Amino acid sequence: MSLYEKIFDSSIKAKATRLAFGEKLKELGSKNEQIVVLEGDLSKSTRTDLFAAECPDRFFNMGIAEANMIGVAAGFARAGKVPFAASFGCFLTGRFDQIRMSVSFTGAAVNLIGSHAGVGIGEDGHSQMALEDVTLMRSLPNVRVFQPSHERETHSFMEWTVKDPNPSYMRVTRQGLPQVKDTGATFKEGHWEFLHESKEENVPCIVATGGVLEPSVKAADELIASGAYPDVSIVNASWLNPVSKENIDRILALKPSFVVSVEDHYKMGGLGGILAEMLSERPSSPALKRIGVTEFGQSGSPSDNYENYGFTGPGIAKQITGA
Amino acid sequence: MNFHWPKETLSSPQTRKAMRQAILESIFLAKSGHPGGSLSMVEILSSLFEAGFQLDSSDFYNPENDRFVLSKGHGVPAYYAIMSQMGLFEAKELAGLRQYGHFLQGHPDRLRFDKMEASTGSLGQGASVALGLALGLRLSYRAKKISRLPRVYCVLGDGEIQEGQVWECLMSCGKFMPGNLTFVLDYNKGQIDGPTSEVMNLEPLADKLRAFNLEVSSCDGHDVDRLKDYFSSCHTQEEGKARFLIANTVKGKGISFMEHPNKWHGAAPSEEQLVDAIKELYEGESPNGTLRG
C-alpha cells in the first residue's frame, strides 16, 4: 500500500479548508450566541457568507478597512463575545500593528482567519497571496497559529479555539485538500499529526503543513518507488505556535537521516524556521532541508504555480534528493 | 471588591489640583513621560467620571458598567491619577509609574493591569476597540444577557486622529449607529514635532466629523460645568449617531511654563521646575501630601 493510500481517504471529496471553516463557523454560530463574525468584504471567498446567511444579526461586514475590523474584533472580545475576523491572510496580517497591540498585547481572544494561503491561490497573483503571515503571527507570544491540512482538523481547531482565552490565527487554503484518515490521536494544543513513522532508521522525515501535505506524501511515495529510500516518515505540522517539544522528541526518536520542511509560505520564518530553531537546540540533531517559496509569487493556474514553485510530488522529491 | 468612588467631588478644584500634582510628581519620579497631554485631559476625565460614567462602586468588573478606552495612551498619567482618586488603587502606587516591574506602565498595558480596557499607545487604535465594545455590549443587551446597556467612552488625542484607522472607525460608526458610544477629542493643538495645524492640519474638523454621520459638539475642555452638562446629557440609545465631543484644551494646562504646543509633550520636569509647578498649582500653599518619599 502506498503512503498516499495509507494517509488519505480517497472516498471523501477534496475540500478547501476555507470551506471547511465556513461550514463549521455556521454550525458553531447557530449554537453559540456569543460568536460574532467580522468580514472585510470578502465573505464569498473566506466563506463567512454561510454564517452571514444563518446569523445575520451577528455578522458585521466592516468593508475594506481591515485595521478597524481588527480593533473592533478586539472590542467584541473585551465585551465577552467570541469574535472571528476573516479576510485574505495577507490583508489581515498586513495590519500587523493592530494585531500586535489591540489583539495580542491587549490579550483579546480574537480568532483571525486568513484565507488564500500561498502561491496555491493561482491566477490572482502575488498581491493576494499570504506568504509571510506565519512568520508574522508566530512572532507574537500569545497568538495560537494553526494551519489545517484537512477538514477534520479544521473543525477540531475551531471547537478548541472558541473555548481558548488566547488570540488565534488560522491559515486556510483556497484550493481543495484531500481528507486525512483519522489516526486516532487526540487533538492537543501544539501537537502535530504523525501520519507515518518509518521503522527504518536513517531515512528522511518530511514535515509538511497545509496545502503541500498532499504533494509531500506523493513525493515520499515517489522516493520509495524509485528506490532512493526504503521508507519516508510523514508528519502533518498543523500547529505553528505553540509547537510542543514532544514533536521534536518524536521526530528524533525516528532517527531520520535528515528532516525536510515543506510549506507554501516563504522559506524564512515559517515551518522551516520553526524546525531550524527547535532542532538547533538539540545536541546532535539531523540536518534540515527547507522547502518553501523564495521569491515573489505570480499569476498562473494553481497547478501551474505548484509545478513552477516545486510543490508537486516530483518537484518535492527532486528537491529532497538534490537531483 | 470595594473601592472608594467620590463621584460628587471628582471635578472639584481640590481633586483636579491633586491630579495635576500626581501627574507632575509621577513623571518627575519616572524621569520621563508626557506631562503636556496629561495635564490637558484633567477636566475631561474628572467631569466624565463625575457626571457621565456609570460604575458599580462595589464591582469594577460588573458587565453592566460603562467602559473607558484611553486611545491616547501616552496621556495615561492623567488616567492613573483619577483612578487613584476613585480608589481603584492606592495613591502611593503612582510613584511606581514607569518603574521596572510596576503595573503602572508608561502606556496602558492590560496584560499587567487588567483595569485597563485595552492596551494602547500605538496611536489610532482605541477608537476601534471602543466601537467593538459598544456593539458587543449592544448585542448582549439585545440578547438580554445584561439588563442595562452600558455606554462606552473613548478619549482621543488630536495628533492621533491623523491615523487612517480612526477614520475607518468613524465611517463604520455611520453604518452601525452605536447609540451608546461617545468619543472625546482632547484637542490641545500640539503634537511632538509642533502645532497640530502645522504638522498635519485637521481643520475643518467639525465639518469632517459631521460628514461621517456623527453627532458633533464642541466646548472649552477645561470648563467643568460645560463638560459635566455634556456628559450628563449623553443619553444612551440602542441605535443612534455616535457622539463626538471636540474639547478645546491647552496642552500643559494649569502650569504656565508648560502651556506650550510641544515643549512639554514628552519631557519630565527638573526638581526645580517641579517645585515651581507645585507652587503655582497651590498658589504658595502646601499640598496635602506628596509622592516624593
**Mind telling me the C-alpha Rg of chain B?**
18 Å
- The strands making up the biggest β-sheet of chain B line up spatially as 1-2-3-7-6
Main structural class of chain B: alpha/beta
Q: Report the principal-axis shape of chain A.
A: globular
Strand content of chain B: 5-15%
What is the number of beta strands of chain A?
Answer: 14
| Oligomeric description of these chains | heterodimer
Q: Regions of chain A with pLDDT < 50 over 5+ consecutive residues?
A: none
CATH architecture of chain B: 3-Layer(aba) Sandwich
CATH topology of chain B: Rossmann fold
Question: Which structural category do the helix and sheet elements of chain A fall into?
Answer: alpha/beta
Count of helical stretches of chain A: 14
Q: Biggest interface pair, residues each? A: A-B, 33 and 37 residues
Query: How big is the Rg of chain A?
Result: 19 Å
What is the average of the pLDDT values of chain B? 96
Reading off the top of the CATH hierarchy, the class of chain B is best stated as Alpha Beta
Distance, first to last CA of chain B: 28 Å
Helix content of chain B: 25-40%
Approximately how much helix is present in the residues of chain A?
25-40%
The CATH H-level homologous superfamily of chain B: Thiamin diphosphate (ThDP)-binding fold, Pyr/PP domains
Can you put this structure into words, describing what you see?
Chain A is of the alpha/beta class and 323 residues long. Chain A folds into two domains: 3-10 and 182-321, Rossmann fold, CATH 3.40.50; 15-177, Thiamin diphosphate (ThDP)-binding fold, Pyr/PP domains (Rossmann fold, 3-Layer(aba) Sandwich), CATH 3.40.50. Chain A is built from 14 helices and 14 strands. In chain A, strands 3-2-4-5-7-6-12 form a seven-stranded mixed β-sheet, sandwiched between helices. In chain A, strands 9-11-10-13-14 form a five-stranded mixed β-sheet, with helices on both faces. Chain A has a two-stranded antiparallel sheet with strand order 1-8. In chain A, strand 6, helix 9 (151-161) and strand 7 form a beta-alpha-beta unit. In chain A, helix 10 (213-225) packs across helix 14 (313-321). Chain A starts with a helix and ends with a helix. By secondary structure, chain B is of the alpha/beta class. Chain B has one domain (7-281): Thiamin diphosphate (ThDP)-binding fold, Pyr/PP domains (Rossmann fold), CATH 3.40.50.970. Helix content of chain B is 36%, strand content 11%. Chain B has helices at residues 13-30, 35-39, 42-52, 76-85, 126-142, 164-176, 196-199, 205-211, 224-232, 271-281; strands spanning 67-70, 152-157, 181-187, 190-191, 194-195, 215-220, 243-248. Chain B has a five-stranded parallel β-sheet, with helices on one face. In chain B, helix 1 (13-30) crosses helix 4 (76-85) and helix 1 packs antiparallel against helix 10. At the A-B interface, helix 5 and helix 7 of A face helix 5 and helix 6 of B.
